[in-house]
Amino acid sequence: MEWLVPFILTVITASTPLLLAASGELVTEKSGVLNLGVEGMMLVGAIAGFAVTASSGSAILGILAAVVAGVLMSLIFAFLTLSLMANQVATGLALTIFGIGFSALVGSKFVGFAIDPLPALSIPGISAIPVIGPILFGQDFLVYLSIAVVIGVGWFLAKSRAGLVLKAVGDSHHSAHAIGYSVIKIRYLATMFGGAMAGLGGAYLSLSYTPMWAENMTAGRGWIALALVVFATWRPGRLLAGAYMFGLISVMQLHAQGAGIHVPSQFMSMLPYLATVIVLVIISSDRAKIRLNAPACIGQAFRPAQ
Amino acid sequence: MVRLEPRRQHSQAMVYLSPVLAIFMTLVVGGIIFAFMGKNPFDALYTFFILPINNSYGISELFVKATPLVIIAVGLAMGFRANVWNIGAEGQLTMGAIFGGGLALYFHDSESALLLPAMFVLGAIGGAFWASIPALLRTKFNANEILTSLMLTYVATLFLSFLVHGPWRNPEGFNFPESRPFPDAGLLPIIYDGTRVHLGTAIAVFVVIAGWLLLSKSVIGFQLRVVGKAPQAARHVGFRQKRMVWFTLLLGGALAGLAGLFEVSGPIGQLQPQISPGYGFTAIIVAFLGRLHPVGILFGGLIMALTYLGGELAQITLGLPNAVTGLFQGILLFFLLACDVLTKYRIRFGSIAAKGRTA
Description:
Protein name (chain B): Sugar ABC transporter permease
Organism (chain B): Thalassospira povalilytica
CATH architecture of chain A: Orthogonal Bundle
Shape of chain B: globular
Oligomer: heterodimer
Number of helices of chain A: 13
Order of helices and strands of chain A: HHHHHHHHHHHHH
Keywords (chain B): Cell membrane, Membrane, Transmembrane, Transmembrane helix
Low-confidence stretches of chain B: 353-359
Membrane topology (chain B): Multi-pass membrane protein
Largest sheet of chain A: none
Strand order of the largest sheet of chain B: 1-2
CATH topology of chain A: ABC transporter involved in vitamin B12 uptake, BtuC
Helix content of chain A: over 70%
Order of helices and strands of chain B: EHHHHHHHHHHHHHEH
Structural class of chain A: mainly alpha
Number of strands of chain A: 0
Number of strands of chain B: 2
Largest sheet of chain B: 2 strands, antiparallel
Subcellular location (chain B): Cell membrane
Number of domains of chain A: 1
CATH class of chain A: Mainly Alpha
């Protein structure tokens, strides 16, 4: 049983970046905006967090930088799609292409740098309790934040007035506009929240998961986060479950070798991507469920009638 | 205050002007970025965009790099017109290279003139097969083709890596993850001596012409244009969305597969873990730069090919990281999309009140 605790710990660390990025994208999509640039925003968040942490020695500053970087990236997207009414799919792709290039450019100076990983919480006595201690009371602060974010998003969308307005904007922008809500402003804010969370997810990768910078280190996690939102049918509770399921799948390759399963490593590495496809198929084939939960205006440009 | 006012009709002038404007703005921003990196912006831009093509060999290399971009982008543009977002062309390119290249490896001592044509066919089949998966999942199970086609790109790349590290590794090599070199009969002939310009480049020009005819003269081309512009109308007239999905994905996949085969049987000459510097993704930008029109794509492909050459040269002579290429490509796509607004809207200065109300 001594393998169990380290195993659960790796599942948690693999799930956290997905959970952060997907929570943000869920809010963005609920407002009717489809931002496919999650991968690019995560990468820019990862390098911003790493560069600032490595230069300043402060992980707090690094995390703040990652959030700011993610928000700035999302603002590029918001300006193009919401103010200039550019196609959201194409702009999201552009954001990812730009993010890959930009992060690699800035990151070229930081390859090979080493930083201390984010410190784990340590409560004397409690964190030392076998099994429960390290799992529940021995994580770094971004892990707790990711759980808090998804719970907060759940509360916001279901219980708060602002959340209701956001959903109204996503479901029927013309009605929301007619009642007097500023559709564009609300969508800007929702997109910026998505950017902030993607930036945080990226920072988790470069500050905690593998405390270093490598080109393209997100390796498709931004896209998996997008798929997770569909998998969760835009519901935060299912998002939490989905992110942990994907975390589990993606660490299986690390543990398969140890368990004596000899499959070429490339096939093990395919698992998260194949799982994403399979999960998408299972969820999407239930058309009624998708129609019921998907924001009705997703991906559509809004221009108030004059 | 700045406002956007819808035009009654798309501006024809802006259709042609906006890509030019986007390129100009990219150069300005590029110069600013170079200045930030401590380089003289004019020197850097010269190195990036002029120096690579100021001799005939450079121009021939431009054609070599543009070949896969143009071939892939023509296929993708058909899908984008019909709102089918195949962004997994990189994976389809890889599968084309595996299928066609696999044949060359199987017949590695062949001298048959039939080998190369057979590789073409298998390359196209490989790409179309890989694209048929998102097509099937979209039409049968309603799964978003953006995500499925992209996920399959990772799978294809890993599969190629498995093959060249394992079963297809060159038994006479030095344990490098590479296949045998293809036999001469499996290599594309060079069509201009002293350069690397190969038969695939000529085929790319043919693809452009064929794509143009398909779009302007055929029934399915007409349907593609209507589905993209007025999906509701298309449904009323009875155009079948599913057929569009299948047609555009299979065509896009086949062309991407062919482009992948051309890379491995042309400039590379064998299978190796990395066979493309992201042509499948860059082709998306090429398609938009060419305004989703095959002839425009020809020019778009040449311009994007230049960013690869410029990036390589800037890396050697100025010590700039290769990532500058991707950065330029992303910025160009931003400006293209932003300038696109000019074809549909007029920019007006002043508030609505100043102009008086027009209902």
